[in-house]
């Protein structure tokens, strides 16, 4: 099974059929308080960039919705809406404060949902970086499952399972963490040291 097919299976129809509850963009605000625990208990600082990935449509109305998303993300900091090598679209934002970053990714997701494209939303990806040494980690929110899961890449196609389990055990009361690890889909960066949305 190829990367693209696995992505479609885990974020697509199977995840939708196996959904434990409806996804809600409001869930993203759980990360605001959780970022304090990530810093104090796990020594990870929230990053200043996050991404929202969704499946685009070739329609005039959807292109209008994309323009609305771009308008939401304009302003302070940096933003981009672009397609990746797998044909998925990323809305990416960089902000000075993590609360503002979460809020802007939420508004981008909510904008698509309000325009009737909530079913096109796949995931929101938030970066955390170690305060001293080590690898970056991510908290990913699956819109198809309505839950978060940790992702700790340790190389171009390797992940640190032990670190992910530790993140889950510490953060389980802070976030709605996905219990079924088969849905902890890895969003591999294209190259070492880069992010999934690059």
Task: Walk me through what this model shows.
With 198 residues, this protein is of the alpha+beta class. It has a single domain, classed as Alpha-Beta Plaits. Helix content is 35%, strand content 25%. The protein has six helices and eight strands; from the N terminus they run H-H-H-E-H-E-E-H-E-E-E-E-E-H. It has a six-stranded antiparallel sheet. The protein has a two-stranded antiparallel sheet with strand order 7-8. A hairpin with a 4-residue loop joins strand 5 and strand 6. Helix 4 packs antiparallel against helix 5 (98-114). InterPro entries: PspAB-like.
Question: Quick gist of this model?
Answer:
With 198 residues, this protein is α+β, with helices and mostly antiparallel strands.
How are the secondary structure elements laid out?
Elements: H1 3-11, H2 13-17, H3 30-42, E1 44-54, H4 60-73, E2 78-83, E3 89-94, H5 98-114, E4 121-130, E5 137-142, E6 147-151, E7 153-155, E8 158-159, H6 161-171
Antiparallel strand pairs: 1-3, 1-4, 2-3, 4-5, 5-6, 7-8
Helix pairs in contact: 4-5
InterPro entries: PspAB-like
Distance from N terminus to C terminus (CA atoms, Å) equals 23 Å
CATH architecture: 2-Layer Sandwich
- What does the largest sheet look like? 6 strands, antiparallel
The amount of beta strand, in percent, is 15-25%
Main attributes?
8 strands, Alpha-Beta Plaits, alpha+beta, single chain, 198 residues, 6-stranded antiparallel β-sheet, disordered N terminus, PspAB-like, 35% helix
């Amino acid at each position: 099974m190829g990367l693209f097919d696995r992505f479609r299976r885990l974020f697509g129809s199977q995840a939708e059929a196996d959904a434990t509850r409806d996804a809600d963009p409001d869930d993203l605000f759980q990360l605001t308080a959780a970022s304090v625990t990530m810093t104090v208990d796990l020594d990870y600082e929230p990053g200043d960039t996050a991404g929202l990935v969704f499946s685009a449509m070739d329609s005039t109305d959807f292109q209008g919705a994309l323009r609305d998303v771009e308008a939401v993300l304009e302003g302070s900091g940096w933003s981009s809406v672009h397609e990746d090598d797998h044909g998925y679209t990323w809305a990416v934002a960089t902000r000075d404060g993590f609360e503002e970053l979460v809020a802007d990714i939420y508004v981008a997701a909510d904008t698509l949902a309000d325009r009737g494209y909530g079913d096109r939303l796949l995931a929101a990806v938030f970066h955390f970086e170690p305060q001293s040494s080590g690898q970056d980690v991510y908290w990913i929110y699956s819109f198809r499952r309505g839950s978060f899961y940790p992702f700790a890449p340790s190389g171009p196609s390797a992940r640190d399972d032990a670190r992910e389990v530790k993140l889950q055990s510490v953060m389980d009361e802070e976030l709605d963490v996905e219990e079924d690890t088969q849905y902890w889909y890895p969003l591999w960066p294209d190259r070492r040291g880069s992010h999934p949305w690059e």
